[in-house]
Write a structure and sequence with these properties.
five-stranded parallel sheet; Arc Repressor Mutant, subunit A; alpha/beta; Rossmann fold; 2 domains; 8 helices
Length: 232
Amino acid sequence: MSYHILLVDDDKLLRRSLAFNLEQAGYRVSSAANAEDALSLARRDQPDLVLLDIGLPGMDGLDALRNFKEQTKVPVIFLTARRRELDEIVGLELGADDYITKPFSLDVLTARIKVALRHGDDPSHVSSETDSVIAGDLLIDLGAHTVTIGGRSIELTPREFDLLHALALRPNQVLSVDELLVQVWGAEFTGEPQVVYVHIRWLRQKIEEDPSNPQRIITVHGVGYKLEISDS
């Protein structure tokens, strides 16, 4: 299985080009335009490494680093246009594994990524607490990438699996279309709600007894979708 890299940067062109090049190099890449979305995405789909810009809107990279280190033990590499030595010292003292100043060459970045992954590689790094999600009679096994409902196996595509996982992490709570786009597809799909609509329809066809009258994935008009879980 390829390593999962989470790229956090508010520069849309950089995210697109860097994600493309890293995917060409064999990595699986998720992206976010701000720290808040990145932390939410990492809770749902833990990365093996985070590439983190310091100068982010809202929560900056230094605060984001603290949160990432509390949430997960994966290596973090700072990507930044700031050249002040203080930033590097503070970042590394807070737990960053490396620090690369923009502009940088792709060869240098991939070499640093390999080093950070090697240092952070641990066959037992996946917590057993996050190996599965149970919501009512729904069981999502993340390690095996399987879904069962009432013991019945459900065949899902990778994107359908990720969408159901995002909903199951917050049962009975409404997630907006924008939240689902960021968490499941990444920041590059912001403004393309039809992607969510189509996959919700496909998912309902597989997990609902009557897809035209859904009882599990509920539409909250003007807000978003929620996975309805009965208390009984």
